[in-house]
Design a protein that fits this description.
Number of helices: 4
Strand content: 15-25%
Strand order of the largest sheet: 1-3-2
Distance between the termini: 37 Å
Number of strands: 5
Length: about 100
C-alpha cells in the first residue's frame, strides 16, 4: 500500500469476473474496494492514460491565462478573505503583473 492509502492494479485488459467490482453504483469506474484507510482501483492502462491526459489538458488550459497582480490578489481575496491579513494584501497590489505564459 502506498503512503496515501491508494492501491492500484493495472493491466492491458480486465476479465469479466472483475467487471462488477469495477462498475459499482456511486463510485468512479475502476474504484473496486474501499476501506477505512485504503482505496483499491482496478484500471486498464488505457483508462489510466486517458484520465491523466484529461487532467493534464485541463491544467494546461488553466495555466494559459495571464492576469495582473491586482487580479490575482482579488481572486485570492474573494476565495480566502477570512485568512488574509488586510495590510499584506494592500502591499501586494502595488507589485508588477504576474503572467503564466511559458
Amino acid at each position: 500500500m502506498t503512503p496515501s492509502g491508494l492501491c492500484g492494479c493495472f493491466g492491458s485488459k480486465t476479465t469479466p469476473a472483475i467487471e462488477p467490482d469495477r462498475h459499482q453504483k456511486d463510485r468512479a469506474i475502476g474504484h473496486a474496494l474501499t476501506g477505512e484507510n485504503y482505496d483499491i482501483w482496478v484500471l486498464e492502462w488505457g483508462e489510466l492514460i486517458a484520465s491523466v491526459e484529461r487532467r493534464y489538458t485541463f491544467y494546461k488550459e488553466q495555466l494559459k491565462s495571464s492576469i495582473t497582480q491586482d487580479e490575482a490578489v482579488e481572486r485570492v481575496r474573494s476565495r480566502h478573505e477570512a485568512l488574509l491579513n488586510p495590510r499584506r494584501v494592500a502591499k501586494a497590489t502595488s507589485m508588477r503583473p504576474v503572467t503564466t505564459d511559458s
